Amino acid sequence: MPILLDDSNESTWNRRHHMFLLTLNNKLFLAPIKNPKRIMDVGTGLGIWASYELQVRLGDCRIDVFHIAPGGYIEHSEPTPKLVSDDSSVASGDIIHHCYELAIEATQKFGKDIMIAPFIRKRIEEAGFVNVVEKKYKWPLGEWPVDCKLKDIGRWNMQHWLEGIDAWTLRLLTQYCGVRQFPVLSAIS
């Protein structure tokens, strides 16, 4: 789910970083590397996880080709914008389901595909990477889980959604789907 990278969304990016730390048990990455020396961080937000003396901002750029040394690793995180439930409590016709459908429609009209998470592994393999490992994690929305870790992630994720939903969807829904009132805000209030 795209998040604007500006000062108004700094807390959203920081919250997302914190949710990753909770999810990964305070690990910054999962690749089996000890004491990494060269890391290229592309499109990961504010870069607060990196403590390097030099940060290079490339702006809005596209990298067509980059080389990874043999034995090197890539890590890619791609959350799905679709909210699902283990017990089917998010059903067709639900306001959350409707907002997801609008977001898909809006991003397609915008020329982007935000529903790429299910295809990432295949795309990485098609690019020639081997020994691809895919891990899927749940980020609950709210404090409903019994599991303490998931409850904590859910608490952070609820705040993430409440503060971030405008930045993620308002322009797309009003500009590309003709939505004049924002239904999610009234539904979750």
Notes on the protein architecture:
With 189 residues, the chain is mostly helical. 38% of the residues lie in helices and 0% in strands. It contains five helices and no strands. The radius of gyration is 18 Å and the shape is globular. Residues 52-58 have low confidence and may be disordered.
Key terms for this structure?
single chain, 189 residues, mainly alpha, 0% strand, globular
Write the layout of secondary structure elements.
Layout: H1 10-23, H2 95-110, H3 120-126, H4 148-176, H5 183-188
* Proportion in helices: 25-40%
In whole angstroms, the N-to-C terminal distance is 21 Å
Q: Catalogue the unreliable spans.
A: 52-58
Order of SSEs: HHHHH
Cα shape: globular
Kindly summarize this structure in a few lines.
By secondary structure, the protein is mainly alpha-helical.
